[in-house]
Write a structure and sequence with these properties.
Blueprint lengths: L1 H15 L1 H15 L9 H20 L7 H23 L1 H4 L1 H6 L6 H27 L11 H25 L3 H14 L12 H7 L3 H13 L7 H26 L2 H4 L1
């Protein structure tokens, strides 16, 4: 009850400063590719290049026999990029905004939140090429796409929870960003993105499924590629983990926020 009240208070503060949050997201979206020749098109070029490399290499290296492998990979790769970019970029968000933190008052939680929201917008923009690509390759879209907001919301909560933890810890321990990079690298290969879950021995699959990103990635595949409802039991597990991560994130961030000015 105390934690819920505390979280509600923090959310209310963010709402009061919502214009600042929106402004930071807009500024980040504008500045991310400022001065580059392709500009905003890099939002689409980067995942397309990764898709091309993975599609050419993995089917031959891993001998994966997966129908419509490029789309099998694409619908999983984009939400993974959203998740990892959010966590990694948010980890340094407080440190990179030291001038703001030490000079003016605002809810510090806005810093990692704005980073996650920016990457969320990038992912949503990427759907502009996902939907046509699915239709072009003969995938039939169904009403199960209506489950998309639910799956995305769970992923957002999970990413935000981790972002709160790591952004707070990074202010004190500057090695955190490097450690996160290693964790993300290993995490990628423990999540069925470039291969189906069935590639693992059956006795291992139950342990791999403990990874909360498995149900999220598989959920996106279900609704986009296979035209079926997601596995709600597995998705509920990921949702519970996401909420726990969010609660821990709020507690860790608030505890460390008191010394941000000193540590920066």
């Amino acid at each position: 009850m105390v934690v819920a009240l505390f979280m509600f208070t923090e959310i209310k503060k963010v709402y009061n400063y919502r214009h600042m949050l929106i402004s930071m997201v807009q500024r980040e979206l504008r500045s991310r590719y400022k001065g580059s020749f392709l500009g905003f098109l890099w939002t689409f070029v980067n995942p397309l290049l990764q898709l091309a490399v993975y599609s050419l290499v993995f089917p031959y290296v891993l001998r994966i026999e997966q129908e419509n492998y490029p789309m099998f990979l694409f619908v999983a790769l984009l939400p993974w990029i959203f998740f990892t970019s959010s966590v990694q970029n948010a980890t340094t968000s407080v440190l990179n905004s030291a001038n703001l933190v030490t000079k003016i008052y605002f809810p510090r939680i806005i810093l990692p939140l704005s980073t996650v929201c920016t990457n969320l917008m990038n992912y949503i923009y990427s759907l502009v090429i996902v939907i046509p690509a699915l239709l072009f390759t003969g995938v039939e879209l169904t009403l199960n796409l209506l489950w998309f907001p639910l799956i995305l919301f769970i992923e957002f909560l999970f990413a935000f929870g981790l972002a709160l933890v790591f952004s707070a810890l990074h202010v004190k321990f500057r090695d955190v960003a490097h450690i996160i990079g290693i964790i993300i690298f290993c995490w990628f290969y423990l999540t069925p993105i470039v291969f189906p879950l069935s590639i693992f021995p059956e006795e291992m699959q139950q342990y791999i499924a403990l990874n909360p990103m498995v149900a999220i990635i598989e959920g996106f595949r279900d609704i986009f590629l296979f035209g079926q409802a997601p596995d709600f039991q597995a998705l509920m597990y990921s949702g519970v983990v996401a909420i726990i991560a969010l609660i821990i994130g709020f507690i860790v961030f608030k505890h460390n926020e008191k010394t941000f000015a000193e540590d920066l």
